[in-house]
């Protein structure tokens, strides 16, 4: 009588590379569903991202860095809400099974997962063009999430870290610019190994009013806060914290990378003026640059007296409003770009 193994190639792959003993979930990988206990008095914060080869990353990207990045970009979404990471699922589409590739991918994935104590509890694998969909679950106290529609008139606008390094690295890889050997490595690190600002997001709860992570570019992402909060953001170009690599390129590339480039995964947030000193102290405590870049203002009226549209206004060193054309401003759009990075 023939015997059949319950370990199909798909389940063998999962068992070999992605199954780990559960520490926080009631039931993890191996059944029809995972089971998790929800902490009383908390809300679940849930976010999903899909990364596709040739669209969000180069098809020949190093698998260990890719494992890091696919989780990092989702952790960044939790950070922007001020949520504590808890669990995640992974749906992985592979053109073929490559054990060495999977081992490296899993290493990068779980190294970051262990750093933030977030547990893989399920997902799926299938055959097809290389792509991965990751869903993260975090917890936040009700009414304390850093929502995009909570910015207030007169709020200060802040960003963490430096901007533009990842976008500049992508331009180098796409042969749009050529970076010098001493400049390239730190820029590539920003592109391939982003640092999700989870600790900052947690510290901003009760301090900031609104926040967003910078995945698609400062102008595009800050614009989402403006739209949801029905306010205009006025920011100063001279106040933008630039990645050091930007100092090696011309002003137009520098400006486009810092204002419209994606993949920084820093946090942009708004907070009342009264929180200014607290944020400065927070920056020192965490060893993380937090830069004040502008103010949330009322939407200007049009010539017929009607309210205009929320917008992001960039002011140059002379106090002049800069045009979108001279800044090359456009964020990442999944259907209007051929970029290989999200």
Q: Biggest sheet, in brief?
A: 6 strands, mixed
Count of DSSP strands: 10
Radius of gyration, CA atoms, in whole angstroms: 21 Å
Count of discrete domains: 2
| CATH architecture tag of the largest domain | Alpha-Beta Complex
Please report the number of helical segments: 10
N-to-C SSE series?
Answer: HEHEHEEEHHHEHEHEHEEH
Q: Strand order, biggest sheet?
A: 6-8-5-9-7-10
Shape: globular
* SS-derived structural category: alpha+beta
Work out the strand percent.
Answer: 15-25%
Report the uncertain regions. Answer: 1-6, 331-342
Helix content: 25-40%
Stated plainly, the CATH topology of the largest domain is called Phosphoribosyl-aminoimidazole Synthetase, Chain A, domain 2
Explain this structure to me?
The protein has 342 residues and is α+β, with helices and mostly antiparallel strands. Helix content is 31%, strand content 21%. It is built from ten helices and ten strands. It has helices at residues 9-17, 63-81, 99-115, 165-173, 184-192, 198-204, 218-229, 251-260, 276-286, 324-327; strands spanning 43-52, 84-94, 119-127, 131-140, 156-160, 210-213, 232-236, 267-271, 290-297, 312-315. Strand 2, helix 3 and strand 3 form a beta-alpha-beta unit. Helix 4 packs across helix 5. It is globular, with a radius of gyration of 21 Å. The termini are far apart.
